[in-house]
Design a protein that fits this description.
Order of helices and strands: HEEEEEHEHEEE
Radius of gyration: 16 Å
Strand content: 35-45%
CATH architecture: 2-Layer Sandwich
Shape: elongated
Structural class: alpha+beta
Number of domains: 1
CATH class: Alpha Beta
Number of strands: 9
Number of helices: 3
Largest sheet: 5 strands, mixed
């Protein structure tokens, strides 16, 4: 019977993968951006964990895990924000293989990154870019 990964494992792998891609830019999980002091940083939030389950005679046949996490890029300049976001896009979009590094990683069939929108937040004086990433994990 196929089983779904532990969401804690997803979190560790996402943190490790993003940190490896954009180091030395700091990466935070669910960080309160209003208190950030860095000129550039990235946050992520696991938004959806979904695995199709089929009914019928073979109820133990399950689909592929497909968790979605949001990536938020914050930067003091639009150019730097776009450069960081492009690093993430180039490294993750279409990627297949070990996701999360040797310590926390697992194999994925594919990562799919979608750029949602970009803007500027007057309250914190930072440009922002929001992307969604879906990872497809064979079970």
């Amino acid at each position: 019977m196929a089983t779904q990964q532990n969401v804690n494992q997803y979190a560790k792998a996402i943190q490790a993968q993003l940190s490896a891609i954009i180091s030395p830019v700091p990466v935070y999980a669910n960080f309160n951006r209003n208190f950030a002091t860095q000129p550039e940083f990235v946050t992520w939030q696991l938004r959806n964990v979904h695995q199709d389950v089929y009914t019928g005679i073979y109820q133990n046949v399950k689909g592929i895990d497909s968790p979605v996490f949001q990536i938020s890029v914050f930067s003091g300049s639009m150019e730097n924000g776009f450069l960081i976001a492009n690093q993430i896009l180039q490294a993750l979009h279409g990627y297949s293989g070990l996701f999360g590094g040797a310590t926390y990683g697992f194999q994925i069939s594919k990562a799919d990154v979608m750029w949602l929108y970009n803007g500027y937040d007057n309250e914190i004086n930072l440009f922002n870019i929001f992307m969604d990433c879906t990872i497809y994990i064979p079970t």
